[in-house]
Amino acid sequence: MKKTSIAMLVVCALIVSAAPAFGEATDGMGIVADVLIARPVGLVSVVFGTVMYVVALPFSIPSGSVEKTGQLLVEEPFKYTFFRPLGDFSFKAGMAAMPATGGTK
Questions:
Q1: Which residues have CB under 8 Å from 4's CB, separation 6+?
Q2: How many CB atoms lie within 10 A of CB 47?
């Protein structure tokens, strides 16, 4: 079960990373690829991100990064899945930057 879950996550990541290869085509094939591939993968990423957000809460509350964690793991996948126009793979709804590493506040 664990290996299957990891394999599915890797496949989803590969599919999502290949989405920009479709370009900005709003033709029929771009829309079909969006409906059949990108939206279902987006829905899975919303569910997975929500689970990861709940798991990360005990660590993000003390560090004060609850809002950033929620934005990165839940809000952005949700916007990409449900607010992006069909066939528009270049949609960027305020993509959150990963937090800087190294120093402390």
A1: none
A2: 12
**Rounded Cα gap, residues 75 and 49, in angstroms:** 9
Q: What is the pLDDT of residues 17-49, one digit of tens each?
A: 555 554 454 678 889 999 999 999 999 999 999
The pLDDT tens digits for 64-79 are: 999 999 999 999 999 9
Q: Which tokens is 14 given? A: 């590969």
pLDDT band at 88 (very low <50, low <70, confident <90, very high): confident
Q: Which two tokens stand for residue 57?
A: 């809460």
Give the Cα separation of 49 and 73 in Å (integer).
5
Give the contacts of 80 (CB within 8 A, at least 6 positions apart): 42, 45, 91, 93
Instruction: Kindly give, in sequence order, each residue whose CB lies less than 8 Å from that of residue 97, ignoring residues fewer than 6 positions away.
Output: none
Number of Cβ within 10 Å of residue 76's Cβ equals 19
